[in-house]
Amino acid sequence: MKKILLVFSITLLLFSCSSTTEEQDKKEILTLIDAQEQAWSKHDLEGFMKGYWKSDSLKFYGSNGITYGWDKTLANYKKGYPTPDHSGTLKFKINDITKIEKESYYVMGEYHLTRTIGNANGIFMIIFRKINGEWKIVADTSS
To answer: Which domain holds residue 64?
Structure first.
């Protein structure tokens, strides 16, 4: 009986630690997404890109196909959103955050740009990975 109680107690402890860690991970990811919203809405595209992995291995998949690398992704954002009128005010609606494996999550949601030149809306799925203690987007699919 003592062994069963011990195993049950350890299992319960591990489960509670795991869910606490997952809750903290999700909170940190949402904080990063909020910072991205704020940077974008100030037309601070470099600030927005702080949420992305600064690597040639970053992948962005959009209407023009796959873009590889942080620098190229930033260049595409600057080309597509050259002025504050083009970038507008960004709001994300997060529909799902799911753990893939240890220190990796996918996030599905919607983006809404309110702009004087016409609003733009779409959907996305991004993959976050914890790299050197920080959450970073390593892959982004937006349409």
So the answer is: 2-142
Neighbours of 29 (CB within 10 A): 20
> pTM value?
0.84
| Domain count within the chain | 1
Q: What CATH number did the domain enclosing 40 receive?
A: 3.10.450.50
pLDDT digits (tens, 9 = 90+) for 30-70: 999 999 999 999 999 999 999 999 999 999 999 889 999 99
Do the Cβ atoms of 91 and 37 come closer than 8 Å? yes
- Do the Cβ atoms of 116 and 85 come closer than 8 Å? yes
State residue 19 phi and psi, 5-degree precision: -70, -35
